From TrEMBL:
Its cofactor is heme b. Gene3D superfamilies: 2.40.128.20. This is Peroxynitrite isomerase. Keywords: Heme, Iron, Isomerase, Metal-binding. Pathway: Nitrogen metabolism. Belongs to the nitrobindin family.
Amino acid sequence: MDVEVHESLEHIAFLLGRWEGAGVGGYPTIDSFNFGQEIEFGHNGKPFLTYTSRTWLLDEAGGRVRPLATETGYWRAQPDRQLEVVLAHPTGIVEIYVGEVVFHKIELRTDVVARTQSAKEYTAGHRLYGLVNGNLMWAYDMAAEGHPLTSHMSAELKKVA
């Protein structure tokens, strides 16, 4: 069923679809690594986008080694180009981000982080997304395991569907 995009989503409608690509990651507590990623943004006519991201470790030849992180959630458009993002991780962490959309650039910072008793220590995140020459570029800084906000991952994704 083809559903019309809710009018409040016009400023983030460029995200809709499936994106695939690769990126790099690292953190003071882990070695640097290359990863592949697939992100899908969808909608059902209501004032939010659905979101799913899957990543996997890549070897030096670009082959898949094993799954890495998965996250799912909702991107909720707010008045005046503001944005709320709710993300859940199978590792026991839930995040609420707030931010703003300026043209095809989105900047988000955590407003709330909750974690289960068994989840690793994670206290904050900062995400930057942008449409550059038709590709979705993003970068993610996190504060975890006693470290302040530090660069963690970034990638370049191409729209495939």
